[in-house]
Amino acid sequence: QVQLVESGGGLVQAGGSLRLSCAASSIAFRHFTMGWYRVAPGKQRELVVDITSWGETLYTDSVKGRFSISRDKNMVYLEMNDLKPEDTATYFCNLLVSLQDDYWGQGTQVTVSS
Fewer CB atoms near the end CB (10 Å): N or C, the chain? Predict the structure, then answer.
């Protein structure tokens, strides 16, 4: 059974930083694309960034230059700098095994105050 466990969310003032972590278990994690998604109040889920097994990344435009994804062994990280109130959301870690098979963490809340 694959488990993804996120941590690192919290309350921060605008302009501040947070680092999210996601730990994956029970799978050859390094072979698959990992991603961070978020769900803001009243909005649909959106991809924040993902990273392939060979390190290629794809960022949504609103976070380019501010967020950075990295992975190491069974962990994936999201470094978030210069946070804005519009970054407030629940952030989810995703493991993409195939288009028909993916896994999600339980989510971690990020709240940015103005």
Answer: N
Q: Is 85 helix (H, G, I), strand (E, B) or coil?
A: helix
Alpha-carbon distance of 77 to 70, in angstroms, equals: 5
List Cα–Cα distances, 65 to 30, 42, 60, in angstroms. Answer: 25, 25, 10
Quote the longest CA-to-CA distance of the chain.
41
Task: Please name the residues in contact with 17: beta carbons below 8 A apart, sequence gap of 6 or more.
Answer: 79, 80, 81, 82, 83
CB 10 within 8 A of CB 110: yes
Phi, psi of 99 (to 5 degrees): -65, -20
Distance, CA of 33 to CA of 56 (rounded, Å): 9
State the first-to-last Cα distance of the chain, in angstroms, to the nearest integer. Answer: 40
Question: 102, 110, 109, 98: which is closest to 24 by C-alpha?
Answer: 102
Q: What is the pLDDT of residues 9-51, one digit of tens each?
A: 999 999 999 999 999 886 678 889 999 999 999 999 999 999 9
